[in-house]
Amino acid sequence: MAHFAKIQDGVVQDVIVAEQDFIDAYCEGAWVQTSYNTFGGVHYSYHEVEKSWVEDNGETTTVTSLERYDDSGIALRKNYAGIGFTYDSERDAFYAPQPYASWTLNDATCLWEAPTAYPDDGKIYNWDEDTTSWVEVE
Amino acid sequence: MSGFGYNVSGFGAFPNRSGPYDIQFLVVAGGGAGGGTNSQNYASGGGGGAGGYIATTASQIERGLTFTVVVGAGAAETVTSYYGAAGATSRIQGAGLTSPIDSSNNVLANGGGGGAPSESAGGGANNGTSGGGGGSSLNTSTKSGGSASGSGDGNAGGYGHWFNAPQAAYNRPLHHAGGGGGGGAGAAGGNCTNSFTSTYGGNGGAGKQWLNSTYYAGGGGGAVWVNTDGGQGSGGNGGGGAGGYWRNYSSAVTVAVAGTANTGGGGGGAPMAYQSSSRGGHSGGSGVVIVRYEGGQIATGGTVSSAGGYTYHTFTSSGNFVTG
Q1: Which end of chain A is least crowded, N or C, by CB within 10 Å?
Q2: What's the predicted TM-score (pTM) here?
């Protein structure tokens, strides 16, 4: 099944499940194909994995979870289109609205990124746009 | 009588081979996506609302008519801190359809609303037929789920909540965060439940069972972030995806689950956006349109099947239903 996004003034208005011949015959306006399983410039599939952890009482809990992996498929237009997303014809890519004014678009993934990376120290942080920095949550 | 089992004048409602006949149909829109987690912090997104659900009948439809069927897509996966996107509308259009129709002869169901991210209520602009669940809140207040609006059956999302207390029994602060469940066609999304020792994300609202005995349009489950006991909200019966689960201090995480394709189910909310394996709230399931009538096949379009004396035309992709 293919998916197509209706574009008006560079913004996604609608996304439907259809084939190209239906779009050509019945759909007015500009429609651009989009890929459901594409995110951040990668085409994904899913498989089941088991995850385990030790509870406070010492017992181990195991659950089955879905985990996605890069299936090397065609990552059409970087991201699956959502209503309200931008379609950038120069990049030929879909991307979500900008979350903060200071965040910039990664050209490779068409995902928004903070000016500084999330700290990798195991602590928990919020983004503070006023200071454009990560602020630790106490 | 001309033909055994069919065209028997006065026998049930089997279509006469030459006259108009009744059709029953189901229109389900795309489900909303689960909410992300605000500012990529430790919190939980609400589940996505189910796509709108319309089950109705059109009487004495003439033969030789073409109905245009459009199947709405499920909403895109949420990127980090955002509200989940809304699902897209599904519709069937053509002459002879009756209530509920719009001015263009559409029987149209609106997409489900997106779940709210943490720190946010579900009443955002993305609300669709079923409301998305509310996100958890960093200031301990409850964040309500989105209300139901739009065309098609749908219900409100449940509320999300964040719980925080210094805790002597554990050698760490006690934080819990649960998102609300997305609304389903048959029931509202569940609320996050939390206490001093546990938190559970709200379950997605149940969908509705159509004439083929299958449930459609279940809401997505709310995510949960815990460092003690708890669990994510389950997806509502009818294709809703479960919320994600993040267990702090043990790095245990299960990702949010997408709404099932061709059900209009809402996607699960995200637990912990900066975690690369969880990212944002998951996608909504695409919608579906199904037409059925009594007796053998006399129309074309979609995937054709039969059961219980009825012929079904199932559209998982847009196309035309042509009465024969």
Answers
A1: C
A2: 0.88
For the record, the structure tokens of A6 come out as: 């209706």
Using a CB-CB distance cutoff of 8 angstroms, which residues of chain A are in contact with residue B81? 99, 127
**B175 pLDDT higher than 70:** no
Q: In terms of CA atoms, which chain A residue is nearest residue B278?
A: A67
- Checking if the pLDDT of B149 tops 90, the result is no
Pairing outcome for strands B299-300 and B174-178: unpaired
DSSP conformation letters of B248-294 = TTTTEEE---PPPTTTTPPPPPPS-TTSTTT-SPPPPPP-EEEEEEE
Does any CB of chain B come closer than 8 Å to the CB of residue A124? yes
Choose from B226, B263, B318 for mutation: most chain A CBs within 10 A.
B318
Check if the beta carbon of residue A48 is closer than 8 Å to that of residue A64.
Answer: yes
Higher pLDDT, B132 or B278: B132
Q: Is there a contact between B211 and B307 (Cβ–Cβ < 8 Å)?
A: no
Residue B54 pLDDT exceeds 70: yes
* pLDDT for residue B145: 72
* β-strands A30-34, A11-17 pairing: unpaired
- C-alpha pair distances (Å), B258 with each of A46, A64, B157: 11, 15, 17
B164 touches chain A (CB under 8 A): no
The one-letter code for the residue type at A134 is W
